[in-house]
């Protein structure tokens, strides 16, 4: 029997997914790329792997284009919770990995304010 779109009880291939905006705009226009997005992404990939969290049933770290919340950049979003983070350095990424990706605990101090969009 095939599952349907409304069948959301099956476990996902990954338990959590984190997407980093790596958007780079031409002509030096402001974008996450100018605020350390790539460094954050690379560090997160490594940290997730080093923590033994990478792979099926666990955590996947992915690149994304503009997530349309540029004013808070650099940004990353964690699913299934839909938690939006901003970060300034690799210590922030370590905290997101250890607290949220490993233990499911949101890092309140790094949350993107709800009103910040593009
Ligand atoms: S450039 Fe990163 S959210 Fe738009």
Automatic annotation (TrEMBL):
SUPFAM superfamilies: Thioredoxin-like. It holds the Pfam family 2Fe-2S_thioredx. InterPro entries: Thioredoxin-like_sf. This is Ferredoxin. It comes from Comamonas aquatica DA1877.
């Amino acid at each position: 029997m095939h599952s349907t779109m409304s069948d959301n009880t099956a476990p996902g291939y990954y338990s959590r997914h984190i997407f980093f905006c790596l958007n780079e705009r031409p002509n030096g226009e402001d974008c996450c790329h100018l605020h350390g997005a790539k460094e954050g992404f690379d560090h997160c990939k490594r940290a997730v792997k080093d923590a033994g969290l990478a792979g099926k049933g666990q955590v996947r770290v992915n690149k994304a284009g503009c997530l349309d919340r540029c004013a808070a950049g650099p940004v990353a979003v964690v699913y299934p919770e839909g938690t939006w983070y901003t970060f300034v350095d690799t210590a922030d990424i370590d905290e997101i990995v250890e607290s949220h990706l490993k233990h499911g605990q949101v890092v309140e101090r790094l949350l993107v304010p709800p009103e910040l969009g593009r």
